[in-house]
Amino acid sequence: MGSRPDSADGVYLDDAVQIAAKILVVGHFAVGKTTFIGTMSEIPPLRTEERMTQAGAHVDDLGGVRGKSTTTVAMDFGRITLSSKLVLYLFGTPGQERFVQVWEDMTRGALGALILVDPERLKESFPVIDLVEQYGLPYAISVNHFDETPVRPENELREALDLLPETPIVTCDARDQKSSADALIALVRYLQTRTDRRA
Ligand SMILES: Nc1nc2c(ncn2[C@@H]2O[C@H](COP(=O)(O)OP(=O)(O)OP(=O)(O)O)[C@@H](O)[C@H]2O)c(=O)[nH]1
Ligand SMILES: [Mg+2]
């Protein structure tokens, strides 16, 4: 599977890898998608960042968003080897209305989605969750915990987001590898249980 004798630098896949899965990392504007994929990717992530200008202020609401000067204009891409046999290809997909066309391509072949949610801007996640459901993708919710936000109980978030009891909900800090990895693992486990149930 694409491995080379000189693959010790981690760029090429190990021969033992048997499953490659496409996973979407989605969420509303400025929820931390690019940060998450940058934290998790074992290869230099592909980014499509452009500077934001005043002209876009009415489209992308910067209220409550700190120190952000760029936005993703197409996608993020990264790769993470989760176990010796399983590699995930992560596709960061913008949640804003104007990117709906991108979803047609991004959802093709995807096994599931990790939906990043800002607990302080829950309403902005509704259209994103709707889109993921519309495309029939199984998903897990990862609440990206920004420093100064108070922790909200899981049942409160579950109710506010109108989640099914089986939908995994975890908390992460998109800048932190361990909690971000745990979020991906929660999604993969969920996808696995769904596959097992169908078998
Ligand atoms: N405190 C804190 N800041 C974060 C966290 N995740 C992201 N940020 C910051 O939040 C801002 C937005 O993060 P991005 O990764 O650009 O978010 P995005 O979802 O890719 O944004 P768009 O592509 O513009 O929609 C950046 O300034 C990050 O440094 C987090 O977990 N905690
Ligand atoms: Mg981004």
Verbal overview:
By secondary structure, the protein is α/β, with parallel strands linked by helices. The chain has one domain: P-loop containing nucleotide triphosphate hydrolases (Rossmann fold, 3-Layer(aba) Sandwich). Helices cover 27% and strands 24% of the residues. The protein has helices at residues 33-40, 100-106, 126-134, 154-160, 177-198; strands at 19-27, 49-51, 70-72, 76-81, 86-94, 110-117, 139-144, 169-172. The strands form two sheets. A six-stranded mixed β-sheet has the order 4-5-1-6-7-8, with helices on both faces. A two-stranded antiparallel ribbon has the order 2-3. Strand 6, helix 3 and strand 7 (139-144) form a beta-alpha-beta unit. It is globular and about 50 Å long. Residues 1-7 have low confidence and may be disordered. It binds guanosine-5'-triphosphate (GTP) and magnesium ion. Magnesium ion (MG) binds next to helix 1.
Instruction: Give the overall form.
Output: globular
At the fold tier of CATH, the topology name is Rossmann fold
Q: Helicity, in percent?
A: 25-40%
Strand order of the largest sheet: 4-5-1-6-7-8
**Structural class of the secondary structure composition?**
alpha/beta
The CATH class: Alpha Beta
For the sheet with most strands, the description reads: 6 strands, mixed
Summary of the model, kept short:
The protein has 199 residues and is α/β, with parallel strands linked by helices.
Question: How are the SSEs ordered, and which strands pair?
Answer:
Blueprint: E1 19-27, H1 33-40, E2 49-51, E3 70-72, E4 76-81, E5 86-94, H2 100-106, E6 110-117, H3 126-134, E7 139-144, H4 154-160, E8 169-172, H5 177-198
Parallel strand pairs: 1-5, 1-6, 6-7, 7-8
Antiparallel strand pairs: 2-3, 4-5
Bound molecules: guanosine-5'-triphosphate (GTP) and magnesium ion (MG).
